Amino acid sequence: MELRVSLTVADLERLRTFYRDTVGLEEAASWDEHGHGVVFDVGRATLELIDEEHAAFVDQVEVGGPAHGGAIRLALAVPDAAEAARRLADGGAELLAEARETPWGDVNARTRPPEGPQLTLFSPAE
User: Fold this and answer.
1) Which CATH architecture has domain 52-124?
2) Domain boundaries, the chain
3) Beta bridge mates, 111
4) Which pLDDT score is estimated for 3?
5) What is the DSSP annotation of 59-97?
């Protein structure tokens, strides 16, 4: 079984470069028929369902208040959330919150890529 999240974007090549070169994802497939697309291999995926109360709590922990990120949140496990957030910000993402330790034992940073939903980067707390 595979979970695939599909984002419709206006500037495919900009986002392709961002997710490949800045985030560090590996391209698994691409096509140029009836439009253009690319699939990135992100390894193991999980589907997390949370209610609005918990979403507000996560925003408070990660950003310090409402983040207005919508119903979809993406999160990537990375070796170092602070370093990854700096790299993404340097590559065009908006840094919404610096890396901070969470009550659930991770270090999380929140970014907003050039297009698409907010992206949390998380790593184990040291």
Assistant:
1) Roll (3.10)
2) 12-41, 52-124
3) 95, 119
4) 78
5) HHHHHSS-----S--EEEE-S-HHHHHHHHHHTT-EEEE
